[in-house]
Amino acid sequence: MLWQCHTITDTGKVRSVNEDSIYHSEQHQLWAVADGMGGHHRGDIASQAIVNHLRSFTPSSHSGFSLQRIVQILNTANNELVEKAALEDAGVIASTCAILTRSKHSIICSWVGDSRIYRFRNNVLTQLTRDHSYETLIDDMRNSGQKIDDVMIDIQTLTRGVGAESNLNVEHSHFIPQKNDRYLLCTDGLYKEVSHSELQRRYAETADDQALITTLHEAYLAGGARDNLGLTLVTAN
C-alpha cells in the first residue's frame, strides 16, 4: 500500500500563540500531532519538543521494536520537559500527543492525553484512542461497577501528559490496516468545534484528501476556532 499524508495547523480566532505541532515522515511512516496542555506554561515549547525528538525515530519491521522506540523517544521528551520546568520554576511544561506508525503488518496508535486518532473505513468513522481525562477515568470506574460520588473537578481535566509527571504512561493499540483506510490525527481544537457525526459526514462526502482537509478546516473555523488546530490525514491507497 502507498501511504499519503496531508496536514494543517492553525492558531485559531482566539489564541495568540499556536501551541499545536505536527510531524510526518513518509520515509519512516510515522505521523503525529501534539498539543501544549492548556493552563500550563509554554505549551508551544512542549509540543515542539515532542516533534523534535520524533525526528530520531527509525522504524522496524517488528511492531514491538517500533513501539519500544516510540516509548523511549517520548520518555526522553518527558524527562527534558520535567527538567526544564524545574530549572525555570515553571510548574508544568507539558503536551498531549497522538502518534500513528506502520510496521510490517499492523498500524500502531500511541497516545498521551486527549489528542485523538480516528479511522474511516466502510463509511464509518471510528475513534481508535481513548482520552486520558477524568471523564474517561470515571466512566471506566462506573463500567467496572464502582460507585462514584459527586466529582468536584472538571471532568475534562487531563490525567496524563508528556512532561506532566516524572513517570510517563503511554497507551497503545494495534490494528490491521486495509486498503483505502483513511486515518485522522487531531488535537482537541477540531473535535471540540466539530461533532463526531459532522466529521463522519464530511469524510463520507469528500473522497479527495486535499479537499477533505480543507473542509475540516472550514468546519473548525465555522465552529468558532477557539483553540489551536493540529490536523493530519493519512490514507492507505
Class, according to the CATH hierarchy? Alpha Beta
Instruction: Report the principal-axis shape.
Output: globular
Strand content is: 25-35%
Count of discrete alpha- or pi-helical segments spanning 4 or more residues: 6
Through-space gap between termini: 6 Å
Largest sheet: 5 strands, antiparallel
CATH level-3 fold name: Phosphatase 2c, domain 1
Question: Helix proportion of residues, in percent?
Answer: 25-40%
The CATH superfamily is PPM-type phosphatase domain
* Residue runs with pLDDT of under 50 for 5 or more positions: none
How many strand segments?
Answer: 10
Write up what this structure looks like.
The protein is α+β, with helices and mostly antiparallel strands and 237 residues long. The chain has a single domain (3-130, 161-236), classed as Phosphatase 2c, domain 1, CATH 3.60.40. Helices cover 32% and strands 27% of the residues. It contains 6 helices and 10 strands, in the order βββααββββαββαααβ. Strand 6 (116-121) and strand 7 (124-127) form a beta hairpin. Helix 1 runs antiparallel to helix 2. The radius of gyration is 17 Å and the shape is globular.
Quick overview of this protein structure:
By secondary structure, the protein is an alpha+beta fold. The protein has helices at residues 43-54, 63-87, 134-143, 188-191, 196-205, 209-223, and strands at residues 3-10, 20-25, 30-36, 95-102, 107-112, 116-121, 124-127, 171-175, 182-186, 229-236. It is built from 6 helices and 10 strands; from the N terminus they run βββααββββαββαααβ.
Features:
237 residues, 32% helix, globular, 6 helices, 10 strands, Phosphatase 2c, domain 1
